[in-house]
Design brief:
Blueprint (H helix, E strand, L loop, with lengths): L1 E3 H4 L2 E4 L6 E2 L2 E2 L3 H10 L3 E6 L6 H10 L9 E3 H12 L5 E5 L2 H9 L3 E3 L8 E4 L7 H12 L3 E4 L5 E4 L2 E4 L1 H12 L4 E2 L6 H10 L4 E5 L2 H11 L2 E5 L6 H5 L9 E3 L8 E3 L5 E2 L4 E3 L2 E6 L2 E5 L11 H13 L7 E3 L4
Parallel strand pairs: 2-5, 2-14, 5-6, 7-8, 7-9, 9-10, 10-13, 14-15, 15-16, 21-22
Antiparallel strand pairs: 1-17, 3-4, 11-12, 18-19, 19-20, 20-21
Helix pairs in contact: 4-5, 6-7
């Protein structure tokens, strides 16, 4: 069954880093895909674990790329974390911030006070991404958490893509404080379902689609929230990693990039199985000794056929096995 996703869903919950942009630049085709999906009636909520910038700055970035977006269309993990704290603590409580301006702004907007992690008033520590986080910040946060302060993290993404390569993410800093304090934080962002549910409530959506580039956050979060998901291969996740995804991190659909919203797609579960060989648009995949073997088309199947069809077939073959497959051969993505 082929489907135009922009017509099947009423809200797209779209990740940013590696999906819409990498660093300051748009992922090729993403701006046009979003515009086309809007013309087809699909609304977009930009839902990001990156808590370093306020929603307004994120929206400014998206507008600079040519995307029609309002500030209210951006939902960050810092906003979800601030809501979590506001429901647990009295108004005006002092929250020690380890992170960027987006983390502090979200806390203040929720009726709490953003202070330094070394402040004697601290009743909770909130950690989110910030490019200027120092060893001293991590140490002060560790001391406060070990002394009993509530420990909350916007997200636990250990890496994120930059134009120069893969860089440490907020999760790397959170792990340091967790190791030093011996305390596991409450997490507001993906893969917890809180962030997605927050966005769905804001938009009053009935049928939302999650789109992301990470299995362990975007896709796992969709699974945890009971939502349909589309994995795009424009960011962190490689084709091989997608095929080898564990239960609980498997997307419903796979596409090269956001153009998958406005081109016909097939759900992985609907790829045809003929004698333990999964086939789609000339590509096929089967399993030999726990290895997925992918075979390209014998002839040209037209412009709609691409290397991602091989990934889809490989995923269908791998996920149909009772035991986890260990490798994939025949993919060039």
């Amino acid at each position: 069954m082929m489907a135009l996703l922009a017509e099947l869903f009423d809200l797209a919950l779209v990740d940013l880093d590696g999906v819409v942009y990498v660093g300051p630049d748009a992922v090729p085709g993403s701006v046009d895909a979003i515009a086309q999906s809007h013309r087809l009636g699909l609304r977009t909520a930009f839902v990001t674990n990156n808590a370093g910038r306020p929603a307004s700055q994120v929206a400014d970035h998206l507008r600079s790329l040519g995307i029609d977006v309002q500030n209210e269309d951006v939902v960050t993990s810092a906003m979800a974390a601030a809501d979590l704290l506001a429901h647990r603590l009295p108004a005006g409580s002092a929250i020690g911030i380890v992170g960027g301006a987006g983390v502090s702004a979200s806390v203040e907007a929720a009726g709490l006070r953003a202070v330094a992690p070394s402040s004697p008033e601290v009743v909770a520590i909130l950690m989110g991404f910030g490019p200027d986080i120092s060893w001293r910040d991590l140490a002060e946060a560790s001391y406060a958490v070990a002394a009993g302060a509530l420990f909350v993290a916007t997200n636990t993404d250990r890496t994120f893509p930059t134009p120069e390569g893969i860089a440490p993410g907020s999760g790397a800093f959170v792990a340091a404080v967790q190791e030093a304090s011996g305390v596991t934080p409450l997490v507001a962002g993906k893969p917890e379902p809180t962030l997605y549910r927050n966005a769905i409530n804001r938009f009053q959506a009935k049928n939302a689609l999650v789109i992301g580039d990470r299995l362990d956050t975007d896709i796992a979060g969709a699974v945890n929230a009971g939502l349909t998901s589309l994995l795009v291969l424009s960011g962190i996740c490689s084709a091989k990693q997608a095929v080898l995804a564990s239960v609980g991190q498997r997307p419903d659909l796979i596409a090269a990039d956001l153009q998958g919203l406005v081109t016909e797609q097939v759900f992985i579960r609907n790829i045809a199985n003929s004698g333990q060989r999964w086939e789609h648009r000339g590509w096929s995949a089967h399993v030999e000794d726990s290895v997925v073997v992918v075979t390209p088309p014998a002839q040209d199947h037209g412009p709609s056929a691409d290397g991602v069809d091989g990934v889809r077939c490989a995923a269908a073959a791998a996920w149909a096995q009772e035991d986890q497959v260990v490798d994939v051969v025949g993919l060039d993505r």
